[in-house]
Amino acid sequence: MEAFCKTFEFSSFDTDKGELEKVYKSWGLNFFARKGIMAASTPLFRIKQSSKDATQYFIISRSARSGLTSFRNCDGPMKLDEECTISRRDGNQFKATLKLTGDNILEQTMVHEKNEIPTMVITRELIEDGKLKLTETCEGNSAARIYAPADQVESKEDEEL
Q1: Helix or strand holding residue 31 (H, E)
Q2: 3-class secondary-structure state, position 160
Q3: Measured between alpha carbons, how far is 96 from 124 in angstroms, rounded to an integer?
Q4: Residue 148 CB contacts under 8 Å (≥ 6 apart), including other chains
Q5: 56-69: b or e for each residue (b if 16 or more CB lie within 10 Å)?
Q6: Span of 5-9, 63-67, 82-86, 143-147 with lowest mean pLDDT
Q7: CA-wise closest residue to 109 among 100, 118, 96, 99
Q8: Which residue would you say has higher pLDDT here, 35 or 135?
Q9: Each residue of 20-60: pLDDT tens digit?
Q10: Considering just the CA atoms, what is the radius of gyration of the chain in Å?
Q11: Does the residue 160 lie in any domain?
Protein backbone atom coordinates (compact mmCIF):
# COMPACT_ATOMS: atom_id res chain seq x y z
CA MET A 1 0.00 0.00 0.00
CA GLU A 2 2.94 2.29 0.66
CA ALA A 3 3.67 2.63 -3.08
CA PHE A 4 0.24 4.25 -3.59
CA CYS A 5 0.67 6.83 -0.81
CA LYS A 6 1.76 9.83 -2.83
CA THR A 7 0.43 12.62 -5.03
CA PHE A 8 -0.34 12.01 -8.71
CA GLU A 9 -1.12 14.61 -11.38
CA PHE A 10 -3.13 14.04 -14.56
CA SER A 11 -0.88 13.28 -17.52
CA SER A 12 -3.07 11.93 -20.36
CA PHE A 13 -6.17 10.00 -21.32
CA ASP A 14 -5.68 6.31 -21.99
CA THR A 15 -9.14 6.13 -23.57
CA ASP A 16 -11.16 8.70 -25.51
CA LYS A 17 -12.06 11.66 -23.26
CA GLY A 18 -15.73 11.23 -24.18
CA GLU A 19 -15.75 7.85 -22.45
CA LEU A 20 -15.19 9.56 -19.10
CA GLU A 21 -18.35 11.60 -19.53
CA LYS A 22 -20.26 8.37 -20.31
CA VAL A 23 -18.96 6.81 -17.09
CA TYR A 24 -19.97 9.81 -14.99
CA LYS A 25 -23.37 10.06 -16.67
CA SER A 26 -24.08 6.39 -15.99
CA TRP A 27 -23.02 6.99 -12.37
CA GLY A 28 -25.77 9.58 -12.04
CA LEU A 29 -23.73 12.78 -12.04
CA ASN A 30 -25.71 15.72 -13.41
CA PHE A 31 -24.65 17.78 -16.41
CA PHE A 32 -22.95 20.54 -14.39
CA ALA A 33 -21.00 18.10 -12.20
CA ARG A 34 -19.79 16.21 -15.28
CA LYS A 35 -18.74 19.41 -17.05
CA GLY A 36 -16.97 20.66 -13.94
CA ILE A 37 -14.95 17.47 -13.63
CA MET A 38 -14.15 17.43 -17.33
CA ALA A 39 -13.01 21.07 -17.23
CA ALA A 40 -10.43 20.48 -14.50
CA SER A 41 -7.17 21.34 -16.25
CA THR A 42 -4.63 19.55 -14.07
CA PRO A 43 -6.48 17.35 -11.60
CA LEU A 44 -4.47 15.77 -8.83
CA PHE A 45 -5.19 13.07 -6.33
CA ARG A 46 -3.35 11.85 -3.32
CA ILE A 47 -3.63 8.72 -1.26
CA LYS A 48 -2.61 9.53 2.29
CA GLN A 49 -2.05 7.25 5.22
CA SER A 50 -3.63 8.70 8.35
CA SER A 51 -1.22 10.33 10.76
CA LYS A 52 -3.53 9.23 13.60
CA ASP A 53 -4.17 5.60 12.63
CA ALA A 54 -1.75 3.79 10.31
CA THR A 55 -4.52 1.37 9.21
CA GLN A 56 -6.62 4.20 7.73
CA TYR A 57 -6.26 5.91 4.35
CA PHE A 58 -7.73 8.97 2.67
CA ILE A 59 -8.13 9.68 -1.04
CA ILE A 60 -7.89 13.41 -1.61
CA SER A 61 -8.63 14.91 -5.01
CA ARG A 62 -8.11 18.45 -6.24
CA SER A 63 -9.25 20.02 -9.48
CA ALA A 64 -5.99 22.01 -9.65
CA ARG A 65 -2.97 22.86 -7.48
CA SER A 66 -4.46 26.21 -6.46
CA GLY A 67 -6.80 28.97 -7.54
CA LEU A 68 -10.18 30.42 -6.69
CA THR A 69 -12.11 27.87 -8.72
CA SER A 70 -10.21 24.79 -7.56
CA PHE A 71 -12.00 22.35 -5.30
CA ARG A 72 -10.87 19.66 -2.90
CA ASN A 73 -12.67 16.42 -2.11
CA CYS A 74 -11.66 13.90 0.56
CA ASP A 75 -12.88 10.31 0.85
CA GLY A 76 -12.16 8.47 4.05
CA PRO A 77 -11.06 7.34 6.42
CA MET A 78 -10.96 3.93 4.76
CA LYS A 79 -9.36 0.69 5.91
CA LEU A 80 -8.30 -1.99 3.48
CA ASP A 81 -10.94 -4.70 3.00
CA GLU A 82 -13.46 -2.93 5.26
CA GLU A 83 -16.64 -1.18 4.14
CA CYS A 84 -17.04 2.50 4.96
CA THR A 85 -19.48 5.25 4.00
CA ILE A 86 -18.45 7.91 1.50
CA SER A 87 -20.55 10.95 0.63
CA ARG A 88 -20.44 12.36 -2.88
CA ARG A 89 -20.55 16.15 -3.31
CA ASP A 90 -24.22 15.94 -4.32
CA GLY A 91 -25.11 14.28 -1.00
CA ASN A 92 -25.45 10.71 -2.28
CA GLN A 93 -23.87 8.17 0.04
CA PHE A 94 -22.02 5.04 -0.98
CA LYS A 95 -20.66 2.00 0.79
CA ALA A 96 -17.03 1.88 -0.32
CA THR A 97 -14.51 -0.92 -0.06
CA LEU A 98 -10.81 -0.50 -0.77
CA LYS A 99 -8.84 -3.64 -1.72
CA LEU A 100 -5.22 -4.20 -2.60
CA THR A 101 -5.02 -6.88 -5.28
CA GLY A 102 -1.45 -7.91 -5.85
CA ASP A 103 1.42 -5.49 -5.44
CA ASN A 104 0.32 -2.90 -7.95
CA ILE A 105 -3.50 -2.70 -8.08
CA LEU A 106 -5.76 -0.85 -5.66
CA GLU A 107 -9.48 -1.33 -6.30
CA GLN A 108 -12.24 0.80 -4.82
CA THR A 109 -15.86 -0.33 -5.18
CA MET A 110 -18.64 2.15 -4.46
CA VAL A 111 -22.20 0.85 -3.98
CA HIS A 112 -25.03 3.35 -3.51
CA GLU A 113 -26.59 2.78 -0.11
CA LYS A 114 -30.13 2.80 -1.55
CA ASN A 115 -29.14 0.97 -4.76
CA GLU A 116 -30.61 3.85 -6.82
CA ILE A 117 -27.28 4.64 -8.53
CA PRO A 118 -25.17 2.00 -10.31
CA THR A 119 -21.99 0.69 -8.71
CA MET A 120 -18.72 2.40 -9.62
CA VAL A 121 -15.41 0.51 -9.61
CA ILE A 122 -12.23 2.58 -9.57
CA THR A 123 -9.01 0.72 -10.26
CA ARG A 124 -5.65 2.35 -9.61
CA GLU A 125 -2.75 0.44 -11.13
CA LEU A 126 0.91 1.33 -10.76
CA ILE A 127 2.56 1.10 -14.17
CA GLU A 128 5.98 1.96 -15.64
CA ASP A 129 7.99 5.01 -14.54
CA GLY A 130 6.01 5.32 -11.28
CA LYS A 131 2.90 6.36 -13.20
CA LEU A 132 -0.57 5.32 -12.21
CA LYS A 133 -3.41 4.23 -14.48
CA LEU A 134 -6.79 5.14 -13.05
CA THR A 135 -9.74 3.29 -14.61
CA GLU A 136 -13.35 4.06 -13.71
CA THR A 137 -16.06 1.60 -14.70
CA CYS A 138 -19.83 1.94 -14.34
CA GLU A 139 -22.62 0.05 -16.15
CA GLY A 140 -20.31 -1.27 -18.85
CA ASN A 141 -18.75 2.14 -19.52
CA SER A 142 -15.06 2.47 -18.81
CA ALA A 143 -12.54 5.31 -19.01
CA ALA A 144 -8.85 5.35 -18.14
CA ARG A 145 -6.45 8.17 -17.41
CA ILE A 146 -2.74 8.20 -16.73
CA TYR A 147 -1.34 10.12 -13.76
CA ALA A 148 2.33 10.89 -13.17
CA PRO A 149 3.97 11.24 -9.76
CA ALA A 150 3.88 14.86 -8.61
CA ASP A 151 5.22 17.06 -5.86
CA GLN A 152 3.25 16.58 -2.68
CA VAL A 153 0.32 18.94 -2.31
CA GLU A 154 -0.85 19.21 1.27
CA SER A 155 -3.17 21.69 2.88
CA LYS A 156 -3.83 22.26 6.57
CA GLU A 157 -6.90 20.01 6.22
CA ASP A 158 -4.70 17.25 4.80
CA GLU A 159 -2.13 17.56 7.60
CA GLU A 160 -4.83 16.99 10.22
CA LEU A 161 -5.95 13.66 8.73
Answers
A1: helix 31-39
A2: coil
A3: 15
A4: 8, 9, 11, 129, 130, 131, 132
A5: bbbbbbbbbeeeee
A6: 63-67
A7: 96
A8: 135
A9: 989 999 999 988 888 777 776 578 899 999 999 999 999 99
A10: 15
A11: no
Half-sphere exposure at residue 80, Cβ-oriented, CA atoms within 13 angstroms: 13
How far, in Å, CA of 46 to CA of 61, rounded?
6
Determine, yes or no, domain membership for 157.
no
Per-residue pLDDT, averaged over 9-23, amounts to 90
CATH at 67: 2.40.128.20
pLDDT band of residue 67 (cuts 50, 70, 90) is low
> Is 75 among the domain residues?
yes
Number of domains in the chain: 1
CA angle 85-134-76, nearest 5°? 20
HSE-CB for 49 with a 13 A CA cutoff: 9
Q: In this predicted model, what pLDDT tens digit does every residue of 76-122 receive, in sequence order?
A: 999 999 999 999 888 899 999 999 998 899 999 999 999 999 999 99
Is residue 89, in this structure, part of any structural domain at all?
Answer: yes
Which structural domain, as residue segments, surrounds residue 87?
Answer: 2-147
